[in-house]
Specification:
The complex is a heterodimer. In chain A, 29% of the residues lie in helices and 19% in strands. Chain A is an alpha/beta fold. Chain A has one domain: DsrEFH-like (Hypothetical Protein Ychn, Chain: A, 3-Layer(aba) Sandwich), CATH 3.40.1260.10. A four-stranded mixed beta sheet of chain B has the order 1-2-4-3, covered by helices on one side. Classes of the chains: A alpha/beta, B alpha+beta.
Amino acid sequence: MMWADDSETKVLYVQTHGVDDPGRSATPFFLAASAAAMEFEVMIYFTMYGPSLLRRDVVDKIGPKGDQGQPLSYFIEQATALGVRLLVCQASLDLNDLAMDDLIDGVEMIGGATFNDLAVSADAVISF
Amino acid sequence: MPEPSVPAADQVLDCTGLACPLPVVKTAQAIKGLAPGQVLELLATDAGVEPDMRAWSSRTGNELLSITKLGDVFHILIRRVR
Protein backbone atom coordinates (compact mmCIF):
# COMPACT_ATOMS: atom_id res chain seq x y z
CA MET A 1 0.00 0.00 0.00
CA MET A 2 1.40 3.33 -1.01
CA TRP A 3 -0.50 5.43 1.52
CA ALA A 4 2.06 6.18 4.21
CA ASP A 5 -0.22 6.38 7.24
CA ASP A 6 -3.38 4.34 7.52
CA SER A 7 -4.69 6.57 10.30
CA GLU A 8 -4.61 9.77 8.22
CA THR A 9 -7.51 11.01 6.10
CA LYS A 10 -6.55 10.19 2.51
CA VAL A 11 -7.65 11.99 -0.66
CA LEU A 12 -6.83 10.88 -4.18
CA TYR A 13 -7.31 13.39 -7.02
CA VAL A 14 -7.41 12.29 -10.65
CA GLN A 15 -6.44 14.72 -13.42
CA THR A 16 -7.37 13.65 -16.95
CA HIS A 17 -6.97 17.01 -18.74
CA GLY A 18 -3.73 18.17 -20.31
CA VAL A 19 -1.94 21.12 -21.84
CA ASP A 20 -4.68 21.70 -24.42
CA ASP A 21 -7.05 22.81 -21.67
CA PRO A 22 -5.02 25.13 -19.40
CA GLY A 23 -8.12 26.41 -17.61
CA ARG A 24 -8.50 22.93 -16.12
CA SER A 25 -4.82 22.56 -15.22
CA ALA A 26 -4.45 24.23 -11.83
CA THR A 27 -7.56 23.48 -9.76
CA PRO A 28 -6.53 19.93 -8.77
CA PHE A 29 -3.26 21.39 -7.45
CA PHE A 30 -5.17 24.10 -5.48
CA LEU A 31 -7.46 21.56 -3.89
CA ALA A 32 -4.65 19.13 -3.20
CA ALA A 33 -2.64 21.88 -1.49
CA SER A 34 -5.67 22.79 0.64
CA ALA A 35 -6.17 19.15 1.59
CA ALA A 36 -2.49 18.75 2.52
CA ALA A 37 -2.71 21.91 4.64
CA MET A 38 -5.57 20.19 6.50
CA GLU A 39 -3.06 17.41 7.29
CA PHE A 40 -4.68 14.96 4.89
CA GLU A 41 -2.49 12.57 2.96
CA VAL A 42 -2.88 13.56 -0.69
CA MET A 43 -1.94 12.18 -4.10
CA ILE A 44 -2.80 13.30 -7.63
CA TYR A 45 -2.94 10.64 -10.34
CA PHE A 46 -2.38 11.97 -13.88
CA THR A 47 -3.97 9.81 -16.54
CA MET A 48 -5.31 10.18 -20.10
CA TYR A 49 -3.93 13.65 -21.09
CA GLY A 50 -2.98 14.59 -17.54
CA PRO A 51 0.73 13.62 -17.71
CA SER A 52 1.33 16.36 -20.30
CA LEU A 53 0.90 18.91 -17.48
CA LEU A 54 4.02 17.55 -15.78
CA ARG A 55 6.40 18.08 -18.70
CA ARG A 56 9.46 19.93 -17.46
CA ASP A 57 9.50 22.03 -20.66
CA VAL A 58 5.86 23.02 -20.21
CA VAL A 59 5.23 23.81 -16.52
CA ASP A 60 6.68 27.32 -16.74
CA LYS A 61 5.02 28.10 -20.07
CA ILE A 62 1.35 27.47 -19.32
CA GLY A 63 -0.97 28.60 -16.56
CA PRO A 64 -4.69 28.52 -15.87
CA LYS A 65 -5.13 32.10 -17.09
CA GLY A 66 -2.64 32.09 -19.92
CA ASP A 67 -0.17 34.96 -19.75
CA GLN A 68 -1.96 36.51 -16.76
CA GLY A 69 -1.22 35.18 -13.32
CA GLN A 70 1.12 32.46 -12.17
CA PRO A 71 2.51 29.64 -14.30
CA LEU A 72 1.48 26.07 -13.60
CA SER A 73 4.85 25.36 -11.92
CA TYR A 74 3.86 27.75 -9.12
CA PHE A 75 0.75 25.71 -8.30
CA ILE A 76 2.60 22.41 -8.61
CA GLU A 77 5.30 23.55 -6.18
CA GLN A 78 2.70 24.88 -3.75
CA ALA A 79 1.18 21.40 -3.60
CA THR A 80 4.37 19.33 -3.54
CA ALA A 81 5.93 21.57 -0.85
CA LEU A 82 3.06 20.45 1.41
CA GLY A 83 3.73 16.79 0.67
CA VAL A 84 1.31 16.13 -2.20
CA ARG A 85 2.57 13.19 -4.27
CA LEU A 86 2.26 13.09 -8.07
CA LEU A 87 1.59 9.79 -9.84
CA VAL A 88 1.56 8.64 -13.47
CA CYS A 89 1.30 5.29 -15.21
CA GLN A 90 3.23 4.00 -18.22
CA ALA A 91 0.20 3.65 -20.47
CA SER A 92 -0.73 7.29 -20.10
CA LEU A 93 2.89 8.34 -20.70
CA ASP A 94 2.76 6.31 -23.93
CA LEU A 95 -0.50 7.98 -24.95
CA ASN A 96 1.23 11.37 -24.68
CA ASP A 97 4.55 10.14 -26.18
CA LEU A 98 6.35 10.94 -22.94
CA ALA A 99 9.03 9.27 -20.83
CA MET A 100 9.73 9.81 -17.12
CA ASP A 101 12.78 11.89 -18.12
CA ASP A 102 10.46 14.39 -19.80
CA LEU A 103 8.65 15.06 -16.53
CA ILE A 104 9.52 17.30 -13.59
CA ASP A 105 11.43 15.65 -10.73
CA GLY A 106 9.59 13.73 -8.05
CA VAL A 107 6.83 12.14 -10.14
CA GLU A 108 6.18 8.51 -9.17
CA MET A 109 5.30 5.67 -11.54
CA ILE A 110 2.46 3.35 -10.63
CA GLY A 111 0.17 0.98 -12.53
CA GLY A 112 -3.52 0.25 -12.70
CA ALA A 113 -3.53 -2.14 -9.77
CA THR A 114 -1.87 0.45 -7.54
CA PHE A 115 -4.34 3.10 -8.64
CA ASN A 116 -7.28 0.89 -7.77
CA ASP A 117 -5.72 -0.06 -4.46
CA LEU A 118 -5.18 3.61 -3.62
CA ALA A 119 -8.73 4.42 -4.70
CA VAL A 120 -10.51 1.83 -2.58
CA SER A 121 -8.43 2.70 0.48
CA ALA A 122 -8.81 6.48 0.13
CA ASP A 123 -11.46 8.42 2.03
CA ALA A 124 -12.30 10.34 -1.15
CA VAL A 125 -11.45 10.07 -4.83
CA ILE A 126 -12.06 13.26 -6.80
CA SER A 127 -11.79 13.18 -10.57
CA PHE A 128 -11.31 16.02 -13.02
CA MET B 1 -8.04 46.75 19.28
CA PRO B 2 -8.77 43.14 20.20
CA GLU B 3 -11.61 42.53 22.64
CA PRO B 4 -10.46 42.01 26.23
CA SER B 5 -11.42 38.32 26.19
CA VAL B 6 -9.37 37.64 23.07
CA PRO B 7 -5.70 36.89 23.65
CA ALA B 8 -3.03 38.90 21.88
CA ALA B 9 -1.45 37.18 18.93
CA ASP B 10 2.08 35.82 19.22
CA GLN B 11 2.45 36.15 15.45
CA VAL B 12 0.56 37.98 12.70
CA LEU B 13 0.29 36.42 9.25
CA ASP B 14 -0.75 38.92 6.59
CA CYS B 15 -2.53 37.17 3.71
CA THR B 16 -4.52 40.20 2.56
CA GLY B 17 -4.89 40.20 -1.21
CA LEU B 18 -4.06 36.49 -1.49
CA ALA B 19 -6.60 34.10 -2.99
CA CYS B 20 -7.58 30.57 -2.03
CA PRO B 21 -5.79 28.31 -1.16
CA LEU B 22 -2.93 30.55 0.02
CA PRO B 23 -4.43 31.75 3.32
CA VAL B 24 -5.02 28.13 4.36
CA VAL B 25 -1.66 26.93 3.07
CA LYS B 26 0.29 29.74 4.73
CA THR B 27 -1.63 29.32 8.00
CA ALA B 28 -0.79 25.62 8.03
CA GLN B 29 2.89 26.47 7.57
CA ALA B 30 2.91 29.35 10.07
CA ILE B 31 1.18 27.43 12.86
CA LYS B 32 3.99 24.87 12.80
CA GLY B 33 6.38 27.67 13.75
CA LEU B 34 4.46 28.39 16.96
CA ALA B 35 4.62 26.47 20.22
CA PRO B 36 1.44 24.74 21.45
CA GLY B 37 -0.66 27.34 23.26
CA GLN B 38 0.58 30.26 21.17
CA VAL B 39 -1.83 32.27 19.02
CA LEU B 40 -1.63 33.17 15.34
CA GLU B 41 -3.56 36.10 13.90
CA LEU B 42 -4.38 35.62 10.22
CA LEU B 43 -5.34 38.68 8.19
CA ALA B 44 -7.13 37.77 4.97
CA THR B 45 -9.44 39.27 2.37
CA ASP B 46 -10.32 36.05 0.49
CA ALA B 47 -14.12 35.81 0.60
CA GLY B 48 -14.10 32.11 1.47
CA VAL B 49 -11.65 32.33 4.32
CA GLU B 50 -14.21 32.15 7.13
CA PRO B 51 -15.68 28.71 6.27
CA ASP B 52 -12.22 27.58 5.16
CA MET B 53 -10.57 28.36 8.47
CA ARG B 54 -13.45 26.72 10.35
CA ALA B 55 -12.94 23.56 8.29
CA TRP B 56 -9.17 23.72 8.60
CA SER B 57 -9.26 24.20 12.39
CA SER B 58 -11.75 21.43 12.86
CA ARG B 59 -9.67 19.01 10.79
CA THR B 60 -6.27 19.87 12.22
CA GLY B 61 -7.41 20.12 15.83
CA ASN B 62 -6.24 23.71 16.24
CA GLU B 63 -8.53 26.06 18.13
CA LEU B 64 -10.33 28.83 16.26
CA LEU B 65 -10.67 31.58 18.85
CA SER B 66 -12.41 34.32 16.89
CA ILE B 67 -13.18 35.70 13.46
CA THR B 68 -13.71 39.44 13.21
CA LYS B 69 -14.26 41.35 9.99
CA LEU B 70 -12.92 44.90 10.05
CA GLY B 71 -13.65 46.60 6.75
CA ASP B 72 -12.61 44.13 4.06
CA VAL B 73 -10.18 42.28 6.27
CA PHE B 74 -10.94 39.15 8.28
CA HIS B 75 -8.92 38.92 11.50
CA ILE B 76 -8.79 35.30 12.54
CA LEU B 77 -7.23 34.15 15.79
CA ILE B 78 -6.10 30.54 16.02
CA ARG B 79 -4.42 28.83 18.94
CA ARG B 80 -1.99 26.03 18.18
CA VAL B 81 -3.20 23.07 20.21
CA ARG B 82 -0.61 20.35 19.58
